[in-house]
Amino acid sequence: MHDTQASAQHANGLTSDQIDALRQIHGWNELPRQKPPGWPTVLLRQFTSMLVLILAAAALIALALGEQIDALAIALVLLLNAALGFGQEWRAETALDALRSMLTPHAIAVRDGREVDILARELVPGDVVIISPGAAVPADLHILSGTELRADESVLTGESVPVDKTEGGDDETGQLFAGTALVEGRALGVVEQIGHNTRFGHIAKLTGTVGEKKTNLQMRLGQLAQQIGIAAIAVAAIIVGIGLIAGRPLFEMFMTGLSLAVAMVPEGLPAVVTITLAIGASAMARKKALARRLQAVETLGAASVICTDKTGTLTENQMTATHVWTVDRSYDVTGEGYDPTGHIETDGVPVRAVHDAVLADILKASLTCTHASLQNEDGHWHMIGAPTEGALVTLAFKGWAPPVAQGSLISETPFTSERKRMSVLARDGNDVRLFVKGAPEVVQARCTHIMTQSGPRQLAPADAALITQAYQSMAQDGLRVLSLALRDAGQHDTEEARLTFLGLVGMIDPPRAEIRPALRLARAAGIRVIMITGDGAITAAAIANQIGLGKPDLIEGRDIDAMDAETLAARLRGDVLFARTRPEHKLRIVKALQANGQIVAMTGDGVNDAPALKQANIGVAMGVRGTEVSKSAADLILLDDDFSTIVNAIGEGRRQFDNVRKFVRYLLSSNAGEVFAIMVNLMIGGPLIFLATQILWMNLITDSVTAVALGLEKEEPDQMQRPPRKPNEAILGRSGFALIAVFGIYTASASLWVFYTFMPLGVDLARTAAFTAMLIFEKVSVFAFRSLHRPVSAIGWFSNPVLVLAFSVSVGLQVLAVYWPPLQHLLRTVPLSPGHWWTICLLAAPLIILPELIKGIVMWRTSNQGVQA
Fold first, then answer.
1. Alpha-carbon torsion, ordered 742, 746, 752, 758, to 10 deg
2. Three-class SS of residue 52?
3. Would you tell me the crossing angle of helices 643-683 and 216-245 to the nearest 10 degrees?
4. Is 617:212 a contact under the CB 8 Å cutoff?
5. Which of 70, 127, 152, 309 is catalytic?
6. What sign results for the dihedral spanned by CA atoms 538, 543, 546, 548?
7. CA angle 414, 417, 418 (to 5 degrees)
8. CA neighbours closer than 13 Å in the CB half-sphere of residue 115
9. CA angle, corner 523, sides to 519 and 527, nearest 5?
10. CB–CB of 843/750 below 8 Å?
């Protein structure tokens, strides 16, 4: 826009007609958000897993065989599973919309010659916008006017220190970007880009290039479904072959084989998995973690690496003064952020301004030479202004410095990036003083004296060396250091010379309080934590050391640019820390880790984190300070921004996978016993040992109830001391198949023995006894699956009261099935005598005793080996 035209437009802003025309061209100032999935889409997602498809096929086969009850029951299981999954996912999407609705940004624009408050989405290119301190920038702006402007761009760059902005600049220093915030100064700017054309929007588009991913549990359950499908087909083929060899009709054996294949499929498994994950997701929601997909928490449980942003994730995103240095005394500062409830201490003794003249002058300069202020609203402290100035004001509050009298300020020489200092001429009681703050080397060069506890003295070369040494030491610790000075002055004397050096104040964006214990727990669980930040190398290294990450190899963004994928993957096998990174760097890091076979969790809160959040196996966004883009890209949203919640979620995810593994083995061992019994019975040519309705009763009504209760098992003591499971680790594996075979063979053999032992008393009685025996065997064996390594006596027989209740209810239902006429008619059962029950109980006893003995011996030997080691 040419100068003459620009001047007129900038004075009065756009007219209504211009706005309408521009909106027709550019649209609204908002990101093209993906349309949230409608309820039909979310519902259909529940029917896409391989296991559900196998069950659907089983239902169709049952219907073709004339087994309408079986087909109806399987259909009901599928609907139950879909309802549970749909309910959780729809609730998560609704909660996310509620989070979005809390964000309704406004903007102050100049239109038709007057200032108006409008929704930020209504801005168009050419609009003139006024940005006040603390306000969010609503679009990409070119700065028309403004002095001493500083912007917090951490949401885009990850760098915690605000950057200087100037009016009229042609590079980034003359621009304000959408999504950032102005922390100092008042700016007038003209909108250049809106919506998806902003820098914020470009990163959002980068996020959109990352495809959808499958969770680890989805892949493992898909693998299990394939295994079950192959096993079912193999069993059906074996049965058909055996029947043909025995001379039975082909069609009869084909139908029998299909029936057995259907019987092998654990009807209750999808529902049990969904219920268990839903319970886990609800538990995490109560702990302030919202899982957008049911399997998200389980995937986090498999994480072997957590890539974490620094600013706002590991740190408070609040600059805090932590150290004050003077030539003859140093002070430590307690407390974090802009809450002034901490104190200043030396040698562990709290100090106030009234008792220390040098500290009093430092705090007076901190309160006078500033534009920041602290406000207490409803018991919560809020800072207005630049973070470094806010840290100095908070420091003064902690030292109980008296407030600056109203009207005491006479004049100000502002801070600029060229001057690197700010000075204020102000009345101090009956005197006039010039207070100065700025970069240590700049302020020191203008000092001729230095303040001591006994008063000012001439600044000697030795003093200058001490100041430089102290400054360098604080900087190496990652502190941002400011120097403070003053001198007596006249009413109009603003010359920044002949100053008296007061001291140095070191400040840092402090680590969050919960980080250290959370990182220790993650390390004990064998999980690597890699910090990725946009901050500089010194700050990144200091924070890493403070939170307990040690001193890993530091790699900067420019180093990543020089690496190919293989080199980056090789460097990531070591202990590393990343600084000065851009969004595309984070994306490359996640991909390189995944290429190394790692399951990656990525945490973040800014729009710059969104692409990596979506690419990671599990993206974890901060719900309080996170941007909408990061939340939309994430799988898990921390509603309290508490990093320790991530580690709790890892424990919950591990517990979920352990319990999924337990009840999968339990359900399949139960089904294996039924299949083996039916197969052997067919091979020897006997009558049906179980009827179709009885098989369904065992698999659905009782097994699923018990399996759900098994899914509520508490975490095992060593859960967070184990290394992460391998990414390709199967739910079953060889040991799982062996366990299933052992339990299946025993329960099948015992049921067949019961069947043929009681056969002389009648087929109905024998079948009822075998049916009841198999169910009791399955109920009793559940205790062997409560832990795959520890005996029940070690974890407590009644530590899972829901399982005890489920066991009691299942046995009670079977008693009804044997004695209650309506169920007798449905299941074709007859009453059993006490002797029959006694025989069944004796045969069930080994299913409890033997696993307890074996696991007890293994546990004893392991503990002895540990003691000897």
1. -170
2. helix
3. 0
4. no
5. 309
6. negative
7. 90
8. 7
9. 105
10. yes
User: Residue 699: pLDDT band by 50, 70, 90 thresholds?
Assistant: low
Q: Tell me if residue 507 falls in helix, strand or coil.
A: strand
Q: Which two tokens stand for residue 134?
A: 């603390």
Active-site residue, 309 included = yes
Q: Among 308, 267, 304, which residue's Cα sits nearest to residue 653? A: 304
Residue 2 has pLDDT above 50, yes or no: no
Strands (DSSP E) along 194-294, which ranges? 289-291
Is residue 724 left, alpha or beta, with left meaning phi > 0 and alpha meaning psi from -120 to 50?
A: beta
Pairing of strands 305-309, 600-604: parallel
Q: Which domains does the chain have, with CATH numbers?
A: 3-30+124-193 (2.70.150.10), 262-289+650-868 (1.20.1110.10), 298-315+513-647 (3.40.50.1000), 323-508 (3.40.1110.10)
Per-residue pLDDT at 743 exceeds 90: yes
CB 482 within 8 A of CB 456: no
CA atoms within 13 A on the CB side of 686: 18
Q: Quickly count: other Cβ atoms within 10 Å of residue 710's Cβ.
A: 26
Backbone angle region of 554, left / alpha / beta, with phi > 0 → left and psi within -120 to 50 → alpha:
beta
Kindly state the tokens that stand for 797.
Answer: 């027989």
Q: How far apart are the C-alpha atoms of 117 and 111, rounded to whole Å? A: 10
Distance, in Å, from the CA atom of 768 to the CA atom of 818, rounded to the nearest integer, reads 8
Distance CA 577, CA 587 (A): 15
**Residue 583 to residue 203: CA distance in whole angstroms:** 7
pTM of the model: 0.66
Query: Alpha-carbon distance 798 to 819, whole Å?
Result: 29
Q: What confidence score (pLDDT) does residue 456 get?
A: 95
User: What's the pLDDT score for residue 95?
Assistant: 45
Q: Around Cβ 741, how many Cβ atoms within 10 Å?
A: 13
CA dihedral 282, 288, 289, 290 (to 10 degrees): 70
Q: Which amino acid is at 234?
A: A
Give helix 763-781 / helix 834-844 axis angle, nearest 10°: 40
* Both structure tokens of 133: 């301190």
Q: Identify whether the C-beta of residue 371 lies closer than 8 Å to the C-beta of residue 184.
A: yes
Residue 271 clears pLDDT 70, i.e. is over it: no
Q: CA geometry: angle at 201 spanning 198 and 205, to 5°?
A: 140
Amino acid in the structure at residue 496: E
Compute the distance between CA of residue 257 and CA of residue 373 in angstroms, rounded to an integer: 80
Whether pLDDT at 841 is above 80: yes
Listed ranges 679-683, 689-693, 741-745; the one with the highest mean pLDDT: 741-745
Beta-strand runs (E) in 47-131? 106-111, 114-119, 128-131
Round to whole Å and give the CA distance between 697 and 624: 48
H or E stretch covering 855: helix 846-868
Structure tokens at 235: 């069993």
Burial class (CB in 10 A: 0-12, 13-18, 19+), 764: exposed
Q: How many residues does the chain have?
A: 869
Helix, strand, coil percentages for the chain (3-state, nearest 5): 50, 20, 30
For residue 101, name the pLDDT band (cuts at 50, 70, 90).
very low
For residue 311, give the H/E element and its range: none
Cβ pair 121, 103 in contact under 8 A: no
CA 90, 93, 94, 95: dihedral to nearest 10 degrees? 120
Task: Write phi, then psi, for 303 (nearest 5 degrees).
Answer: -60, 135
On whether the CB atoms of residues 367 and 418 are closer than 8 A, the answer is no
Residue 837: band (very low, low, confident or very high) from pLDDT cuts 50, 70, 90: very high
Which position has the token pair 């004695």? 819
Give the C-alpha separation, 275 to 441, whole Å.
64
Q: Output the furthest CA–CA distance in the chain (Å, rounded).
A: 120
- The angle that helices 537-547 and 461-476 make with each other, rounded to 10 degrees, is 70
- Residue 488: how many CB atoms within 10 A of its CB? 12
